[in-house]
């Protein structure tokens, strides 16, 4: 690595990391609740306590009815999204002739940010994957974002003979230690007209950058972000990776294209989101305090009048195959979704005015409803177990006959939607070997709720703590042959 490929950030670039927090602190997750949100929460708890003291059964019946109504509305909305996705092929897609028509001299510089933390063992594979990108190397601006206290990865990088298109940037040690903080510094140093985020284990399809360039060129100026699809190359490793593959297939192949079709706010994936660099700077980059900075940025882009499109190109990732690390990852996602919801509801009327009622309701269901569903699921499971094992009369009082019928409807519709959409998404991708695992998905829900409660409790104790996901459990699964097999659904 030549000295000119080691980035020495200026003071101004270092200060830009916290630009969003400096100029719009209420739009960051630097604090969990604002003063007005604390007052609102206190009033809600006081009203609930009064209701339980004066009319306990009536209050619990109302809460039960609200939760069941929420389940039914969320299930109905997901059915609507699936239908919209199946009826309309919304993804940006381009033929091989269109891609070949791009001349190297006409292509813009493209910045690729790669945040790294304790990823020394993946560096050689990472560089190999980046070298396979079908993009002129003199137009590539790859920045490896290395943490100052991660001496292992920094030393491994210094020993490698890296291509000239790769630069290294050391992120100064300090709190919060999050991916978005590193990405903000990378954004400040980016040279490209366009910019994309890839994780250390990512293997994007080689022509993805060219497809993104075509996508931006053929879209109206309001389109400032293009989200590629994510999926896994180690689907067959164990039962957890099968379920995780179903999870991603539903999200990126059914729900996100439907949100694109409806022009609704799209919570971005953590990687393979392509941006117009200057527009990203205009919205002050990522929130360094939010542990799902991608979802937050997607909502903030929509709130600023910008549009996100989805791209028919896949980036292959390593599905976390270790339950403990998977729960850590899931807890971070849930915590971040709650952070994102709380941040954008601080000025809910502004978001409503900027995106409109329909898109605002979509935000409520997708960003607010997703963690709520995971958190209240165990409550109903516990009530069901108590009823069937102990036959407590107090439980039956919460479910009079009309409520029981409503609950059974929610149970049937909710389960059907979840299982059917998971199996359908994998079938459409050609993952026939994965489809049958949808029949035992309810076990996966338990793990999801465990992670959700862990994230919710951690929001109180360690709101900006970034739980690292460890990779490398799947030895040769990251080879080129394995990735190609995954792409073919074999």
DSSP helix fraction: 55-70%
Count of separate structural domains: 1
Runs in which pLDDT lies below 50 for 5 or more consecutive residues are 475-490
Number of strands: 9
Strand order of the largest sheet: 1-4-3-2-5-8-7-9-6
Note the main sheet. Answer: 9 strands, mixed
Detailed description of the structure:
- By secondary structure, this protein is of the alpha/beta class.
- It has a single domain, classed as Alpha-Beta Complex (Spore Coat Polysaccharide Biosynthesis Protein SpsA, Chain A).
- 57% of the residues lie in helices and 11% in strands.
- The radius of gyration is 23 Å and the shape is globular.
- The two termini are 39 Å apart.
- Mean pLDDT is 90; it is low at 475-490.
Spell out the key features of this protein.
single chain; 490 residues; alpha/beta; Spore Coat Polysaccharide Biosynthesis Protein SpsA, Chain A; 20 helices; 57% helix; globular; disordered C terminus
Task: Summarize the model shown.
With 490 residues, this protein is of the alpha/beta class. The protein is built from 20 helices and nine strands.
Indicate the topology:
Blueprint lengths: L5 E2 L3 H5 L3 H5 L11 H20 L1 H32 L8 H5 L9 E7 L6 H9 L8 E8 L3 H9 L6 E6 L7 H11 L4 E4 L5 E2 L3 H10 L5 E10 L6 H23 L11 E4 H6 L10 H11 L3 E11 L5 H22 L3 H8 L1 H34 L2 H5 L3 H29 L2 H4 L5 H21 L18 H9 L2
Parallel strand pairs: 1-4, 2-3, 2-5, 3-4, 7-9
Antiparallel strand pairs: 5-8, 6-9, 7-8
Helix pairs in contact: 3-4, 4-10, 4-15, 4-17, 10-17, 12-13, 13-15, 13-19, 14-15, 15-19
């Amino acid at each position: 690595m030549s000295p000119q490929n080691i980035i020495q950030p200026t003071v101004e670039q270092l200060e830009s990391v916290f630009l969003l927090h400096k100029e719009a602190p209420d739009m960051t997750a630097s604090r969990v609740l604002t003063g007005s949100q604390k007052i609102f929460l206190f009033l809600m708890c006081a009203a609930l306590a009064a209701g339980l003291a004066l009319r306990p059964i009536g209050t619990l019946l109302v809460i039960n009815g609200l939760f069941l109504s929420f389940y039914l509305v969320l299930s109905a909305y997901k059915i609507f999204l699936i239908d919209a996705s199946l009826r309309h092929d919304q993804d940006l897609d381009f033929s091989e002739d269109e891609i070949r028509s791009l001349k190297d001299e006409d292509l813009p510089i493209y910045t690729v940010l790669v945040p790294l933390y304790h990823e020394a063992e993946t560096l050689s594979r990472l560089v190999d994957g980046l070298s396979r990108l079908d993009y002129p190397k003199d137009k590539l601006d790859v920045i490896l974002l290395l943490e100052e206290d991660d001496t292992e990865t920094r030393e491994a990088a210094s020993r490698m003979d890296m291509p000239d298109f790769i630069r290294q940037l050391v992120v100064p040690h300090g709190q919060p230690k999050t991916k978005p903080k590193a990405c903000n510094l990378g954004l400040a140093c980016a040279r490209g007209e366009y910019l994309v985020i890839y994780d250390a284990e990512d293997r994007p399809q080689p022509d993805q950058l060219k497809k993104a360039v075509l996508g931006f060129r053929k879209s109206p100026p309001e389109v400032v972000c293009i989200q590629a699809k994510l999926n896994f190359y180690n689907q067959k490793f164990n039962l957890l990776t099968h379920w995780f593959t179903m999870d991603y297939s539903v999200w990126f192949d059914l729900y996100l294209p439907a949100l694109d079709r409806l022009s609704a706010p799209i919570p971005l994936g953590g990687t393979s989101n392509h941006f117009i660099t200057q527009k990203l700077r205009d919205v002050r980059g990522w929130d360094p305090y939010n542990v799902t900075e991608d979802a937050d940025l997607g909502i903030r882009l929509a709130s600023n009048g910008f549009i996100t499109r989805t791209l028919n190109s896949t980036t292959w990732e390593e599905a976390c195959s270790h339950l403990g690390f998977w729960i850590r990852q899931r807890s971070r996602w849930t915590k971040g979704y709650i952070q994102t919801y709380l941040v954008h509801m601080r000025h809910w009327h502004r978001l409503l005015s900027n995106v409109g009622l329909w898109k605002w309701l979509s935000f409520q269901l997708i960003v607010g409803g997703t963690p709520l569903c995971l958190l209240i699921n165990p409550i109903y499971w516990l009530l069901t177990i108590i009823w069937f094992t102990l036959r407590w009369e107090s439980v039956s009082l919460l479910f009079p006959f009309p409520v029981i019928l409503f609950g059974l409807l929610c149970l049937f519709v909710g389960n059907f939607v979840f299982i059917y959409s998971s199996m359908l998404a994998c079938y459409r991708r050609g993952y026939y070997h994965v489809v049958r695992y949808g029949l035992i998905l309810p076990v996966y829900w338990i793990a999801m709720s465990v992670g959700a409660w862990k994230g919710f409790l951690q929001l109180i104790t360690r709101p900006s703590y970034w739980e690292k996901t460890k990779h490398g459990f799947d030895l040769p699964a990251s080879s080129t042959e394995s990735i190609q097999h995954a792409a073919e659904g074999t």
